[in-house]
Amino acid sequence: MATTRSAHTVWEGNLFKGNGVVSFDSSGSIAQQPVTWASRAEDANGKTSPEELIAAAHSSCFSMAFSNILDKAGTPPTKLVTSADVTFQPGEGITGIHLTVEGTVPGISEDDFLAAAEDAKTNCPVSQALRATPITLSAKLA
Hints:
By secondary structure, this protein is α+β, with helices and mostly antiparallel strands. It has helices spanning 37-41, 50-72, 110-123, 125-129, and strands at 7-12, 19-24, 33-35, 79-89, 93-104, 135-141.
């Protein structure tokens, strides 16, 4: 069954001096978050950005995909810690994403762990949606 998740943003003013508020409509799990051009292109100063939201989506999607791949191989993870760093260059856009994962996975070899991580990087739905962006990966067993 397909699912749809929704969010919306209310923006006031121009790009450089304006500001907005992002609302997470589907879950309501995150309070409204402020967003500005400065929080995107300069210092966050307690506000979010589209790139931070992409990083959250990518790190969680990768973790789910990686967990599933490992489980199907008979080596379910005890723990995966994944971070995503999304680089934004004003005037160019999103220029790259770097995923970093450290996993506790009993009974798996380093080579199998790395292969499964690469599979998750390539095939998680968020990676698929972002395939026009260079995505790199660092993975290690704990």
